[in-house]
Amino acid sequence: MAVSVYIPTPFRKLTGNRQNVQADGASVAEVLADVDRQFPGFRALVFGQGDTVPAHINIYVNKQEITSLDGIDTQVRDGDEVAVIPAMAGGSGEDAAPPRKRIGALTPQQVDRYSRHIIMPQVGPSGQRKIMESSVLIIGAGGLGSPIAVYLALAGIGKIGIVDFDTVDISNLQRQILHQNDDIGKMKALSAKETIIAYNPDVEVVTHEAPITSDNAMEIIGRYDYVINGADNFAARYLVNDTCHFLQKPLIDGSILLFDGQVTVYLPGQGCYRCLYPSPPPPGMVPSCAEAGVLGALCGTVGTIQATEVLKLILGVGDSLHGRLLLYDALAMEFRQVRIRKDPNCVLCGEHPTVTGLIDYDAWCGGAFGHTNEEEQKAAEAAAKARDRAASAMNA
Amino acid sequence: MATIRIPMPLRKLTNDAETVSSDAGSLAEAIDGLEATYPGIKERLCDEAGGIRRFVNIYVNGEDVRFLDNINTRLGANDEVSIVPAVAGGA
User: pLDDT-derived band of residue A380, with 50, 70 and 90 as boundaries?
Assistant: First the structure.
């Protein structure tokens, strides 16, 4: 009765680094006893001092967890595969939000791929499964969206949604690590999908190649557990904020300009972007990255913090940036924090809300201040001037 | 002396100074003091009525002055004033 036993990375020091060993036995208990005969100490490592399988160890026969079979007495047959998967002590916290997509046992390949996560007590196999059962929507496949998408893909997030209606331009390649030279002219959402799949084919990627608007935001955002904002304009930021409020979705917000970054987390019912900034600046008052520039590496710092925050929320560990605005000044190389309070006068989430549905955000972010096509024209001209300045600076 | 931290987009107005010291007794006086030294900066922070613009947040020791005494928030020695404008960039 030879069965193959999969040995996880932390136990391989006993097996001479072998990932799979052959063992004999008619049941899981007998097979494990045989492994212990071949590699003394194995049983103690798995079972500790007791006789039963500890809660932090999952054992699978042909990818089925044995507690749903006959436990340690589950019968095995020639050619079966037994896998022993440890959650390190304390790693089996089951208190976070119920998962949407059920992931069964991790395959041996997945255990290897995510081993650096799985061996951490704060993650463990159950935490890794939570990551793989989660869905995250990323607004924008640009400077912030790039590092966010890459790290979430590597982490094995089950479903990543990408909202971007733009195409890849050569000026994006100074910072947007989702896209490469050959992608110029391609839809960013598609280019993002290709990069994500190339990094980790386990991830399901959904592309949303139309602009997010008041007409489609509820439907798109409603499909995901978490939303990460990497938008490049105020209208989209208020739209995403308001939608997340109405749908009670956690929002991980980040923004960048020049050498400065801002990051925070809004949890449902506990304050929102409008509590922080009740209204947008008039068009032209705060320059965009296209007009003023942004340090490419800054996107990596801020986006990676956003990715970190969503992973912590998924795992239910640590203290999130909720209630705190993290300010990053790359020139001074300083991180500082200020407090964010839920504003009782907030028009969206305050005591007497006046915004009770999605509005026309383009009109609100522009119109309230007399923003017209003329203003858009001016913004386009400012961006063109910035390009010209860059060109003449190079030639000077 | 309170320390006023100037955000990057406003440093054009402060000759690139990242921080400015102020011995003003209130935020309003501190902003007037800034304006005297760096003309044009007040307009970026305050609207025509003299209130703080709604897309600019000012914090004293990490607390939003909207939850303190707004523009009349008192300043003392060693207080730190942070000016944080809304930024939309993400691309």
Answer: low
